[in-house]
Design goal:
Layout: E1 2-7, H1 11-15, E2 19-23, H2 30-40, E3 52-55, E4 58-59, E5 71-75
Length: about 80
């Protein structure tokens, strides 16, 4: 199945792009997606524990089972100032 991944803030720099399509086996979770992305973009691996992930407009935990054509957004931790 194919999902779209959108990178926000400095995650664009870590991945070298703002958006991409990723192909995963049916039944894959957000955690599976992140692991695949960390292999493809090793700089993301260090961010595993702090990455916020949303599917559509809703934040989801890493056990969320992805569906074909889902749009996944990756965000760094929220910063204030």
């Amino acid at each position: 199945m194919r999902v779209t991944v959108c990178f926000y803030s400095y995650y664009k720099d870590l991945a070298g792009c703002a958006r991409l399509a990723e192909t995963l086996p049916a039944g894959s979770t957000l955690d599976d997606l992140f692991k695949a992305l960390a292999v493809r973009f090793p700089k993301l691996a260090a961010m595993q524990r702090s990455t916020l992930m949303a599917v559509g407009v809703d934040y989801q935990d890493r056990h969320y089972v992805l569906k074909a054509d889902d749009e996944v957004s990756l965000f760094p931790p929220v910063q204030g100032g």
